[in-house]
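To whoever is on call:

I kicked off a structure prediction for a single chain this morning and the downstream step that reads the tokens threw a length-mismatch warning. I double-checked the sequence; it's 635 residues and nothing unusual in it as far as I can see. Pasting both halves so you can look.
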Amino acid sequence: MAAWNLGRRPCRTLGLLLLVVLSFLVLRRLNWPSTLPAWLGSRQRGLRAVGQHFLLEDSAFRILGGSIHYFRVPREYWVDRLMKLRACGLNTLTTYVPWNLHEPERGKFDFSGNLDLQAFVLMAGEIGLWVILRPGPYICSEIDLGGLPSWLLQDSNMMLRTTYAGFTRAVDLYFDHLMARVVPLQYKHGGPIIAVQVENEYGSYNRDPAYMPYVRKALEDRGIVELLLTSDNKDGLSKGVVDGALATINLQSLADLQVLNNFLQSSQVVQPKMVMEYWTGWFDSWGSAHNIRDSAEVLQTVTGLLDAGSSFNLYMFHGGTNFGFMNGATHHGQYQADVTSYDYDAVLTEAGDYTGKYNKLRGLLSSVAGKRPLPRPPELLPKAAYDPVTFSWYLPLWDALEHLGEPVTSDWPMNMENLPVNNGNGQAFGYTLYETTIDAAGVLQADVRDRGQVFLDSMSLGFLDYDHPEVLIPFVQGYSKLRILVENCGRVNYGPMDDQRKGIIGNVSLNHSPLKKFRIYSLDMKKELFPRFSKKWTRVPEVPILPAFFIGSVTVLIPPADSFMMLENWEKGVVFVNGQNLGRYWNVGPQKTLYLPGPWLYRGSNQLVVFEEKLAGSVVLFSETPHLGRMQYVS
């Protein structure tokens, strides 16, 4: 009997191996290869640039990519967005990795929930997509400080994106943790990652010639073995390259592709043409208009890229949302903060709905797919217009202060990043309240970043910002509390960033005399804040005291679905649903609605909290459709 078993065991093993190989061949036929073990297929050579073409192993390959950022999309919708990308005819996902979200405090890492990068990459592989990873450390991405953590700015000598020791030490620790998760996901290890980008658009910065070689080596030393790429716009292309990495270009029109051609000719480099970012739309700033790009123009440009033999990546395929305080800003002469929506006028809308661009591109790319039919696009997700919410209870900010913990006491104002809070990591996002005592009238001066509302006790006197550095203080007999509520509206994400400390920078002066003895409250408005208010809410009076928190409930009687919130007659603030920070609203526009994802709702009652700075409305409305404001074509 023992001899019979010994004789059968090799047959069983051979049969099992045959079954696995047959399954592999079937999955190959279905273009579903990404997460299979390396030994099953020929995964020795990976994606290579051979002459003017890409080869994946020994087969010709063209990158047809689209960008989706996992951190801007509810995790429950990842599969929906990725399947829509695949059904459009694209074969590659690209995504940034935001350092500031993954390491919110120095040495404290978060790769869970909506930040589970490994799950996102593996999901893309299971759907049949390859992945190009863009890990930074700087990513731009219209995200606060370009994805760099604000605690770096505690160092007064910090030189971001250089080989300054304080920066490279932090990058090394971050890459130690990040790459340990990324390395097993590479193509040559059986995963879907076929290429990794070295930094991002460094040619536009070009501050330290040793920096790009440092980042490339940091990746390679930690086990990155796939094709390396750089990515620069037309103005920075020639300055952003690094030995050992393929140069790619970012552009908004087909004419810019000639810049890449000229660069390759002048450098006598023969390589495949790759557009790492073709901008399908553009981001929006508060006080501006909603930027759009015509679908016919997008189709014409993508057609031209295909005809030119170029690979490409659509930035964005699906933009998503700057939930919380994630948004970045620009400061080219004038400071402009980005809005909460990152709809981007992309191929999919902020809520993942199809657009004219999607339908036209799918038609075009179906011809590229040849005889193999594209997967059927998933059905649209349902939307709902919930009943309006009115607010009967609220808590003025001044009454909430005692529940924020002990304030920081300091002779002089301190910027957010250097406050001794969050285990010594300072304050990254939100508001900071500065409070001192005065007994005189006159002109108040302060350098605030980015917007500060000035109060005498609880009376609002006006705002300080980049264009308004002064506020008049009226005469009031006796001592009064001077309060300045400062909001970080978003750190600059593109360009020089070493000076992006927030809060009050320098002194606060009254009639040119510096004020002292401040009490400083950190209002980063994390999820754990609101339970502290549980027994402190009071009835909303006819004339509420502002700023204030308002609390109500959203009732969901049907299976929860996406919706869009409208805060008409409110001025400026932040909205939280079940503790989730949906982002900022502001009546200067262009954005008029906030996206509310269905997965963040429960069946039944849902807590809604609005923090309003200046002018409170009485009701919040809901719609099945978004309103992103007056539109203008991107020039």
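Update from on-call: the warning came from a stale cache, not from the record. Cleared it. Sanity check on the structure: The domain at 31-368 is CATH 3.20.20.80 (TIM Barrel).
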